[in-house]
TrEMBL record:
It holds the Pfam family DUF1349. InterPro entries: ConA-like_dom_sf, DUF1349, UCP022704. The lineage of its organism: Bacteria, Pseudomonadati, Pseudomonadota, Alphaproteobacteria, Hyphomicrobiales. This is Regulation of enolase protein 1 (Concanavalin A-like superfamily). Transmembrane segments: none annotated.
Length: 194
């Protein structure tokens, strides 16, 4: 089911955003981030997130377009139960280039990066939650979906799901989100990348 971006609920609404038939465009505020404790010792829950309610199992997909230049510039898809249990997955600029990034948080944050493809100005993220597991995939063409992460994630009766963007080191990252949908959980074999 395709989602109307105007029907979501903001956590940390950005000063500048617009939703219309072409998608959602946001420009990040300064020093926005989601992180809990690990390595750095701080907790941040100031990133921009537009949430939509999903049931206890689902697959959500979104297209993300932007240009990332500054350390920790990031945009992607978030799944959230509360401020201590959430996941953000998408692009993050680190070590001089953009990577596909996933942060899984269950009390404390766990960060991983990968590079199944390098062109990250325009790509898709797909997250499936079912039976206490989360499957995260990325795609350049919305047809071939390499696996980014398979991880446990707390079971809940419902989740908040939607676009997220953060700029811990600056403001002014403009990102466009489109082709956002939430539907039944995909249950294909793990090595089926379609």
């Amino acid at each position: 089911m395709s989602i109307d971006f105007n029907s979501g609920i903001w956590l940390n609404e950005p000063r500048s955003w617009k939703a219309d038939e072409s998608g959602l465009t946001i420009t990040t505020d300064a020093k926005t981030d989601f992180w809990r404790e690990t390595y750095y010792g701080f907790t941040r829950d100031s990133g921009h997130f537009l949430g939509f309610t999903a049931g206890d199992s689902f697959t959500a997909t979104i297209r993300i377009r932007g240009e990332y230049h500054t350390l920790y510039d990031q945009a992607g898809l978030m799944v959230r139960i509360d401020d201590t249990k959430w996941v953000k997955s998408g692009v993050e600029f680190t070590d001089g280039e953009p990577f596909l990034s996933t942060v899984i948080t269950d009390g404390k944050s766990d960060w991983s990066v990968s590079e199944p493809f390098k062109e990250l100005e325009d790509f898709h993220i797909r997250v499936t939650v079912i039976n206490g597991a989360m499957r995260i995939q990325a795609s350049r063409d919305s047809k071939f979906w390499p696996l980014l992460r398979l991880a446990p994630f707390p079971i809940a009766t419902q989740y908040q799901v939607g676009p997220t963007a953060c700029t811990p080191e600056r403001s002014g990252l403009t990102v466009n989100f489109s082709e956002f949908s939430i539907g039944p959980a995909i249950t294909t074999d793990l090595h089926n990348l379609s």
